[in-house]
Specification:
Oligomer: single chain
Helix content: 25-40%
Order of helices and strands: HHHEEHEHEHHEEHHHEE
Distance between the termini: 29 Å
Shape: elongated
Number of strands: 8
Number of helices: 10
Radius of gyration: 18 Å
Length: about 260
């Protein structure tokens, strides 16, 4: 079990420390949002678990958000409903009260994945949509050549798609989600064609993997990437990505069905 942090964060990352300014870098990308919302079908009541600052919550449904971190709850826009202070592993709702539920970029931080998924399935009558990354596909991102430690951390943290599918009862669809070139949700692969963005310490901090690394790794990464951008080495190897409209990386949507 992960130790609960001072601001209430219940996962392995301390969002009281790294979550400041999160919304500046992590916003719902409209192309990815359409994939998530389509999985919710015609559900009118939706539960968002590990809701954070509210990214990907549909505006045309009745959404109940759950978020244990006070820092993240405080960053929710005023037009969104206030989030319930609770954890995925112990949802304070009756069986089958929601027509659909969702969780985006959060399952890798839960202290008990099996319990959290079982709870989502318990309170949901219809689809359970989990936006996550396939740990076996992370090394396809160019960052692996510059900060392999960051990729290794993520590969250890993200559960396998098979584990998620099993936790949802086994009846799932797994959807590959293409990442657009100008993705406004700044998870690591969002910058596949904009490497300069990852030189920003705030952009790295908005990706929790960096919080588990020694500061020296970040210093080395910035020096290495800055040098390769200046002398054209990065573009010689990866410059085609600057013009590639989508990147099919590790992003997946796992949709559990009844």
């Amino acid at each position: 079990m992960h130790k609960k942090h001072e601001d209430g964060s219940a996962g392995d990352a301390d969002y009281g420390r790294i979550g400041v300014g999160y919304r500046k870098y992590r916003q719902a990308d409209p192309i990815i949002a359409r994939v998530v919302h389509a999985a919710l079908a015609d559900a009118e009541t939706v539960l968002n678990v590990g809701a954070g600052a509210g990214s990907y919550e549909p505006s045309d449904r009745l959404v109940t958000a759950v978020e244990p971190s006070a820092s993240m709850r405080a960053q929710r826009p005023v037009h969104l409903p206030a989030a319930v202070d609770a954890m995925a592993e112990c949802l304070p709702f009756a069986d089958g009260v929601f027509e659909a539920s969702m969780a985006t970029f959060t399952v890798h931080q839960w202290s008990d994945l099996e319990a959290g998924l079982a709870e989502m399935r318990r309170v949901t009558r219809g689809a359970v949509a989990i936006l996550t990354c396939d740990p076996g596909e992370l090394e396809r991102f160019w960052l692996h050549g510059y900060a392999p430690e960051a990729i290794a951390v993520e590969a250890r943290r993200y559960p396998s798609l098979r584990t998620i599918a099993k936790g949802l009862g086994g009846n799932v669809d797994i959807i590959r989600v293409p990442i657009p070139l100008n993705c406004v949700d700044g998870f690591g692969e969002a910058y596949y064609g904009r490497p300069e963005r990852l030189l920003d310490p705030g952009a790295r901090l908005a990706n929790s993997a960096w919080s588990f690394l020694e500061p020296a790794v970040g210093v080395r990464f910035v020096a290495h990437l800055s040098r390769d951008l200046a002398d054209g080495s990065w573009d010689a190897s990866y410059g085609h990505l600057r013009r590639q409209p989508f990147f099919e990386g590790s992003l997946r949507l796992v949709v559990g069905k009844r």
